[in-house]
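[job 4471] stage=fold_predict status=RUNNING
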Amino acid sequence: MRDHDSMETTARASDRDADLRFNAEMARQFRLAESLLEAQGADPYRLLAYRHGAEELDSLTESAEDIYRRNGLAGLMA
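[job 4471] inference complete, writing structure tokens
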């Protein structure tokens, strides 16, 4: 039974790592968009929105994709 429990723990840790990698990649894309928009002279408030989006993605403890699947767009806006 212990082997099964340790395998479950390892699987959950692996899933969590994948969730955090997904969020980190999305945050990286938001920061890239911010940089490109800044280079184009975009509105500072638009840049701030992308920066805040990246920060929120970095702060999530579960995948943004999972939140969206479970609760739709409203779940991401909560």
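[job 4471] summary: The first helix runs from residue 2 to 39.
[job 4471] exit 0
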